């Protein structure tokens, strides 16, 4: 198994606790629920002396992973361990875990009561809001009501990026492109260098023939990542749509044409340098050469 940063970690053997700990941390870092449960339980069994803080964090992580995997037996075991230790505190974290368990057991009203109680105390808690929205959506079949639910949440809490994203995806699925762009551009106010959202905005603008804005977003993606294939192809396809289909005269001093040529050259260079061979590689290179002829 390879760890982040290129460090190699061998398979766990015998009482090699250090390797086991690294594999557990790797599972947490990459959010691999099955391995969090597996290595977490191995650690619990074989690490005889465990720091108290680490121990209870370990139990919590195993519990959360078990909830994701719907492993009811482990959910009960590790929740009861945490409850036995921390129930006297009647704290937010333990009760939120209890609410999540209620969700799994289809006790939605009980879960919602817990979340609403804590939302009154912590109105800016994104996690609580997300759980409430998720619960309400699970009971709602009408897409228009889900849209209203997300909009109501965003009026109260406009920095909820997940809600903006979900709302944008719903609008996109309904072909409401201008509404969708608004949502994704709102996210870019908070994550201005996020390539996913930059390229999403570029592609939606392209879809509704807003080529100028589309080109600007694709260029921003290339500025942030010079060999970004979606960005390079985006600039090319925008200008194919703008010039070749309309039969406009291609001028050598036109900035769009110069930019397109540079993108075509970079794409050609990238594909030719690829050491792996894939089925459409030659077709792509031939198509790039055809486009170069168009933009001479």
From TrEMBL:
Reading the lineage from the top rank, the first entry is Eukaryota
Q: Where in the cell is it found?
A: Endoplasmic reticulum membrane
Q: Which UniProt keywords apply?
A: Endoplasmic reticulum, Membrane, Repeat, TPR repeat
Q: What is its main location?
A: endoplasmic reticulum
GO cellular component terms, A-Z: EMC complex
InterPro entries, sorted:
EMC2-like, TPR-like_helical_dom_sf, TPR_EMC2, TPR_rpt
Segments crossing the lipid bilayer = none
Ranges of residues in domain EMC2 TPR-like = 96-205
PROSITE patterns (UniProt xref): TPR
Which topology term describes how it sits in the membrane? Peripheral membrane protein
| TPR repeats mapped onto the chain | 161-194
Q: Which PANTHER family match?
A: TETRATRICOPEPTIDE REPEAT PROTEIN (PTHR12760)
What quaternary arrangement does the UniProt entry report?
Component of the ER membrane protein complex (EMC).
Q: What does this protein do?
A: Part of the endoplasmic reticulum membrane protein complex (EMC) that enables the energy-independent insertion into endoplasmic reticulum membranes of newly synthesized membrane proteins.
Q: Indicate the family of this protein.
A: Belongs to the EMC2 family.
Its name, as the record gives it, is ER membrane protein complex subunit 2
């Amino acid at each position: 198994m390879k760890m982040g940063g290129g460090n190699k970690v061998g398979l766990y053997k015998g009482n090699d606790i250090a390797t086991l700990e690294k594999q557990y941390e790797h599972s947490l870092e990459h959010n691999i629920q099955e391995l969090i449960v597996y290595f977490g339980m191995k650690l619990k069994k074989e690490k005889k002396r465990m720091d108290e803080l680490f121990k209870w964090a370990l139990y919590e992580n195993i519990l959360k992973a078990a909830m994701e995997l719907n492993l009811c037996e482990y959910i009960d075991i590790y929740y009861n361990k945490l409850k036995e230790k921390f129930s006297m505190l009647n704290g937010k974290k333990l009760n939120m875990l209890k609410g999540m368990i209620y969700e799994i057991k289809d006790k939605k009203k009980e879960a919602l009561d817990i979340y609403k109680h804590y939302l009154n105390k912590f109105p800016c808690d994104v996690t609580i809001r997300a759980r409430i929205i998720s619960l309400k959506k699970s009971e709602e079949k009408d897409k228009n009501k889900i849209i209203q639910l997300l909009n109501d949440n965003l009026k109260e809490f406009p920095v909820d990026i997940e809600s903006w994203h979900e709302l944008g995806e719903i609008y996109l699925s309904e072909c409401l492109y201008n509404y969708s762009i608004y949502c994704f551009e709102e996210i870019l106010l908070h994550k201005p260098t996020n390539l996913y959202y930059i390229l999403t905005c570029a592609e939606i603008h392209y879809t509704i023939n807003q080529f100028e804005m589309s080109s600007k977003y694709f260029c921003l993606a290339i500025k942030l990542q010079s060999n970004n294939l979606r960005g390079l192809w985006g600039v090319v396809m925008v200008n194919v749509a703008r010039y070749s289909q309309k039969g406009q005269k291609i001028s050598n001093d036109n900035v769009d044409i110069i930019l397109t040529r540079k993108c075509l050259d970079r794409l050609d260079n990238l594909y030719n340098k690829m050491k792996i061979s894939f089925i459409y590689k030659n077709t792509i290179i031939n198509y790039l050469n055809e486009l170069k002829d168009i933009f001479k």
